[in-house]
Automatic annotation (TrEMBL), chain A:
Name the record gives this protein: ABC transporter permease
GO CC entries: plasma membrane
Gene3D superfamilies on file: MetI-like
Topology term for the membrane: Multi-pass membrane protein
Compartments where found: Cell membrane
Organism: Thalassobius vesicularis
TM stretches of this protein: 12-33, 67-88, 100-120, 126-149, 237-256
UniProt keyword terms in alphabetical order: Cell membrane, Membrane, Transmembrane, Transmembrane helix, Transport
């Protein structure tokens, strides 16, 4: 009685599961327009656009947003360089300790964020490094490496060694080979990895609470609002904007790596 | 060619001695991870062997196991137990909910439907963690949508009965363990779906046909063929759900009762209480639990499904 059609039970369980994953996010979009500003009342008593204007005029939101963009850009740049180097080494050769290297790259994201956070904090304390934007970036770059690495290593494996040999036989030096042969091949994977690293850093809160001084990134700003709500409607609007902003790199990364054997962001 | 090679001594050397290139490639990332990350982990481990002077509140830099002993005090031991039980409950529940999604996506979804399922899991996975937690604060609030929906179908008596249960109940869902559990389940569910789906996709279709030809019912095929083959994926997913729940301190702080989880204990001890050694010892607990877990998972072959 094996059939190629799913049973109704399986189908409804699968789609119910997807609904469970998406309804809460959709709810955020409704709350951004509610006229209620004291409670989380449902259904909203009325709809308004006025909170968008209020949020637009809030300097603290803009400052947090600017810091988050700066941190995410620099961390992504560092992660792109280090992740690509690591992926090139691991995919090109078998060497002693290769497994250990891939474990080391994955570790900052495999261990709970609080461990990474408190480890970095105690190391900065011991080293006498004051908490600043720099320490936030140090932390973010550490766990962003794995995202770039995962994307790049999959693509490197698909570049055949004979292409590199052909390039040097034709007289290209190492940098020419990298620029004209390797980079065009791994370019989209790096772009996808970079986008995901950016999204990861832009959203990170747990490690950041340990490595930040007085600076507030956007997630830190949101956490403050969650713990001690001051202006709920502004939080609603910011939450909606964050959802929209993070969807773009994910969709972008998906289209860039589509059709590959390994998919981008297979492990966050 | 020969002349060319002579003008490029660097490329030439890389070609003849690939190890040099390898070392150059590996040095920057290993230096970064080795110094920044492993150095930090070592610093943490070191601190957990110090203790705090009860009278002065200063850290006593002498090797001692006293701080680990403190973990066994009932109040601290309860925190460890509570967190581990929550992690186990979240893991089991997410496996149950993830299975139909992963199974449908792996076996029945084709073409556009497959892409739809993939994105439908990826988007919630990658959307902002805090926004997701915030969404649940909205849902679980007393005046929120869940209470409204439960009222709407006339089931408020059932909800009140649930909330009046000892331990897991509370004043409202947003201050009860049930609420904490729901948020954990929601936030980590995609981490279970992806590896589970990957392992289900590798179950060969002819095995299912064979099981069918030999007269097995759908339920029998599921239990004796599909589930054992999907086990590595399920274990791989459970590594994520378990580890992430163990280390989280924001969700129980925002949705839940006032009783602490490991993450909150770490945060409180390193912050306001200033007891860094105890915070470090608490942080070592998830590392040890995950170490044991990973070791068992490796023996079951879970890493092939990652």
């Amino acid at each position: 009685m094996h059939s190629d059609r799913a049973s109704l039970l399986l189908k409804s369980a699968a789609f119910a599961g997807l609904l469970f994953l998406h309804l809460p996010i959709l709810l955020i979009f409704v709350y951004a327009f509610t006229t209620e500003d004291r409670t989380y009342q449902w259904p909203p008593p009325g709809l308004t656009l006025k909170w968008f204007a209020v949020t637009w005029n809030r300097p603290d939101v803009w400052e947090a947003m600017a810091l988050s963009v700066r941190v995410a850009s620099i961390s992504t740049a560092i992660a792109l360089v280090l992740g690509t180097l690591c992926a090139a080494a691991v995919s090109r050769a078998k060497f002693f300790g290769r497994e250990a290297v891939s474990l080391l790259v994955i570790l900052p994201i495999a261990l709970p964020g609080i461990i990474t956070g408190i480890s970095l904090r105690s190391a900065f304390n011991i080293g006498g490094i004051p908490f600043s934007t720099l320490t936030i970036i140090l932390g973010h770059a550490t766990f962003c490496i794995v995202v770039v690495y995962n994307n790049a290593v999959a693509r490197f494996r698909r570049i055949s060694g004979s292409m590199l040999e052909a390039s040097s036989d034709l007289g290209a030096n190492g940098f020419q080979t990298f620029w004209h042969v390797v980079l065009p091949n791994i370019g989209t994977a790096l772009l996808a990895g970079g986008m995901l690293a950016f999204a990861l850093s832009f959203d990170e809160v747990i490690v950041t609470t340990f490595t930040a001084g007085q600076q507030a990134t956007l997630p830190i700003w949101m956490l403050e609002e969650l713990v001690r709500p001051r202006q709920r409607p502004v939080t609603n609007v910011v939450a909606m904007i964050v959802v929209l902003v993070t969807f773009l790199p994910i969709l972008g990364a998906y289209y860039l790596t589509r059709g590959g054997t390994e998919t981008a962001g297979g492990s966050k | 060619m020969a002349t060319h090679r002579l003008t490029n001594p660097l490329s030439d050397m890389f070609w003849r001695r690939p190890r040099v290139l390898l070392a150059l490639l590996l040095a920057p990332p290993l230096l970064w991870l080795g110094v920044v990350y492993i150095g930090s982990l070592a610093a943490l481990l070191l601190q957990s062997f110090f203790s705090i002077d009860e009278f002065s509140g200063l850290i006593n830099y002498e090797f001692t196991l006293k701080t680990y002993g403190e973990l066994l005090r009932p109040a601290n031991y309860d925190i460890v137990l509570r967190t581990t039980l929550m992690a186990a409950a979240v893991t089991v529940a997410s496996a149950v909910i993830a299975f139909p999604i992963a199974f449908y996506a792996a076996r029945y979804a084709k073409g556009r439907m497959k892409a739809f399922f993939y994105l439908a899991v990826m988007l919630p996975l990658w959307s902002s963690y805090l926004v997701k937690v915030y969404a649940w604060k909205l849902i679980l609030a007393k005046e929120g949508i869940l209470t409204w929906a439960v009222d709407g179908i006339g089931a408020s008596a059932a909800l009140n009965a649930l909330l009046s249960l000892p331990v897991i109940g509370g004043n409202s869902l947003s201050v009860s363990y049930i609420g904490t559990f729901l948020v954990f389940l929601y936030v980590w569910l995609p981490y279970m779906i992806l590896p589970l789906q990957a392992s289900l996709e590798r179950v060969p279709a002819n095995l299912l046909e064979a099981s069918d030809d030999l007269g097995a019912s759908r339920g029998q095929t599921l239990r004796h063929v599909i589930l054992p083959l999907a086990m590595p994926g399920m274990i791989a997913g459970s590594i994520f759900t378990f580890s992430l729940t163990l280390g989280d301190y924001i969700i129980p702080q925002i949705v839940g009762s006032s009783r602490n989880f490991i993450g909150q204990a770490v945060y409180a001890h390193q912050g306001t209480a200033g007891n860094i050694p105890l915070a470090a010892a608490f942080a070592v607990v998830p590392i040890v639990i995950m170490g044991v877990y990973l070791w068992m998972a490796k023996r079951k072959g879970a890493f092939d499904a990652l």
